[in-house]
Here is the input.
Amino acid sequence: MNKQSAAEAKRECIAEMGVPLGTQYAELWQEIAHLHLTWLEYVELFGKKKSRIDLLNSAAPSFFRMIQDRLREAVFLHIARLTDPPISLGRKDKSNLTLLNLPGLMDDPELKHEVDKRCGTALAGAAFARDWRNRHIAHRDLDLALGGNAKPLPDVQIREVSDALNSFEAVLNAIARHF
Here is the structure.
């Protein structure tokens, strides 16, 4: 197993991919790795065994519900951020670290096309997280909050989140295979 520090991995990415692509690739890799770890903790606590949920509910139901909700929201927010547009809307001076930056940093047309296609898949797979972020986490949709006629937030299954994370990996893996 490779025991590289994040800084060493970043230097290696820059050496292989060049500064613009290598720098963002390395940072996105770290972001996605941390996101995976958070998601794995969530699944271990709340998504594997009914007996574990029963134990948590018997010990401190309100506390563990709060933890479950905050972890889920943190994961959804992170997924949404990683698929944001490269530039914040209406703010040309505000660039975002996002998977969608990567195709624009590539010279090879075949690689650019493959990564762009995989970014499209990742963006589509993150739609649930963007909806949650836009209507519940970052903002509170008034109609939704008051029980009006708003479309309900999607009930997101563990598989959907895992699929989204796998689509992020597919973007990075396409680049890694090329280099």
About this structure: The first helix runs from residue 6 to 17. The chain has a mean pLDDT of 94.
